[in-house]
Amino acid sequence: MKNENLIDNLVIGGGPAGLTAAYTILKDTNLGKVELIESNQVYLGGISRTENKGDFRFDIGGHRFFSKSSQINKLWDEILPNGFIERKRKSRILFRKKFFNYPISAAEALIKLGFFESVLCVLSFIKAKIFPIKKPLSFHDWVANNFGERLYLNFFKTYTEKVWGMSCDEISADWAAQRIKGLDLIKLVLDSMNFKKSKGDSIKTLIKTFKYPKYGPGMMWEEAGKKIEKMNGKISMGIIAKEFHYIKDEKKWNVVCKDINSNKEKIYVANKVICSAALRDVVENIYPPMSAKKEASKLNYRDFITVAVMLKKEPNFDDNWIYIHDKNINAGRMQNYTSWSNYMAPRNSGCVGLEYFCNKNDNFWNKSNEQLKKIAFEDLNNLGIFQENEILDAFVIRQEKAYPVYDKEYKDVITKISKELNLNYKNFYLVGRNGMHKYNNQDHAMMSSVLTVENIKLNKNKNNIWNINVDAEYLEEGENDKKNAMQSLRNTPEKI
Predict the structure, then answer these.
(1) Cβ neighbours of residue 361 under 8 Å, at least 6 residues apart?
(2) Beta-carbon count within 10 A of 462 CB
(3) Are residues 269 and 418 in the same domain?
């Protein structure tokens, strides 16, 4: 292959991980030039981008800026100084036409569920503690062990299966361990009864405030792009990486891309590749082929549709988002964009996002935009929040590969892939949520790039990025350094 575009560092993907990698490399003048390629023709930020229609802005999923890593907080403030606003956090669960605070208040839950159901929940919890499942393998096993079967059925099953489109018995227990770890039912009861808590005993994810860019998360990443170009980095939009050819003798990579703008093939020759593209697609297109290629095909993703509904008036609730645990409502979650920032919609108007979890090319994904808008309007009407005559317009956003699926096979697959890459394919680095097939928050995605750049500088894998903790302990006041973002990959815990 002809060396048409020889560069030192090729970064694939313009989301938080890719932009952080490019920015961090360019801050070190000894690491060479950088080019970042992004498949989207318009927006930087990946799933953390902010799209707009006129003066209405839409966050693709809701992105809080909160991290226990002082290094990541410093990066945010460095890239976007004076660009953040501080917001109060409020979210609730809609279940059986009643609202429950999230995280769940045990006292509130028991009161609203009624006496009989509450007794069953308590008895179920006691039974789980006396007779736990010894080796919890599934999401169902793990939650039932820690909260009891009745609370699992009431508050976990419906929403989780709506999100993932699969049975909770098929979802790895890792998912629960990472996303629910730290929620202790006994502590929840004591907290709800106002018993004195010691410092650090707060419930996971119960942060009272968080930072948010004034005009949405995309504001952060668009500014990162500007700073990268000011440091002589190059950003190319509308470029899709198709094939990755490793030239072993030269320890270089030929990356074959498609330029969407010209519909022409483009070849990059790079000394190093930092890649945040979906792991399955990357492994399937590496040459010479990886022995783990067959296993990589087993990795699955969940796709995502947002119907952003623009309103004639401000919403009559102040939640940042609401989880919808109702089988009769198609949406799984509803965002209140103006609760994230008043600047997400024009004054005296509002905007909410109905979020639908689906698989690319399934029946729901293939519905027309008009059909999806109609479904969203019906959901809003059934929720009793807005009437159709209060709606100005709606905008449909499709997001492929929004969530890497944690099925029972995923961990063995990524372990094999990561080992083979490190052993046989030099100077190829996987970062970010999809690059590592880990449900990372954006601060952890950024940390994977920060530590990867450190590894590049040292020319060795001092930092094992696969050990970055994907569950943020969003409860403690103060900040810790990057070591608190690192933990060894753990076996599934049997207790919280």
Answers:
(1) none
(2) 10
(3) yes
